[in-house]
Amino acid sequence: MSFTEEEIAYLRSQPLARIATVSADGQPDVAPVGFEFDGTYLYVGGHDPVHTRKFRNVRAGNKSVALVIDDLVSTDPWTPRFLRIYCTADLIERESRFGPAPYLRLAPTISWSWNLDGRPFTDPANQFSPRKTVHQTPAQSH
Q1: Which element (helix H / strand E) includes 54?
Q2: What torsion, rounded to 10 degrees, do the Cα atoms 54, 97, 92, 109 define?
Q3: Which residue spans within the chain are E strands per DSSP?
Q4: 5-134 is classed in which CATH architecture?
Q5: In this predicted model, what pLDDT tens digit does every residue of 4-59 receive, in sequence order?
Q6: Which residues pair with 111 in a beta bridge?
């Protein structure tokens, strides 16, 4: 399975996410990041990315990462929505809008989305039951 059209639209509408990685000694780390989505993979780069914890953690062999994209449609009424994605990360070089650069390439493995249509939390029909998807692992090409 893959992302729904609604999930893809949400991914493409959001400029920021939070990525969680784990260091070689088991210390979790979370950082805000910009990301790109090409329909299969998510990409995370940044300013001098090879010197960031997220890159060092993946380079050390901890390739399991989590990415959360969320926002508030409104604070009154309270209207949150989110997409949480577990991924396997690889370090790659790729051409992007900023030229060639190192990136984390994230292959989604499992995702959960909730309330992407932006219904108020107080709506009785808005029970907390995220949509879970187990993704097909794309063939890794290097």
Answers
A1: helix 53-59
A2: 70
A3: 16-22, 28-34, 36-37, 42-44, 64-75, 78-96, 99-114, 131-134
A4: Roll (2.30)
A5: 999 999 999 999 999 999 999 999 999 999 999 999 999 999 888 889 999 999 99
A6: 85, 133
> Tokens representing 36?
């790109």
Confidence (pTM): 0.90
> Can you tell me the distance from the alpha carbon of 141 to that of 25, in angstroms, rounded to the nearest whole number?
29
DSSP designation for 140: P
* 96, β-bridge pairs: 99
Structure tokens at 27: 């210390």
CA distances from 5 to 2, 10, 51 (A): 9, 9, 35
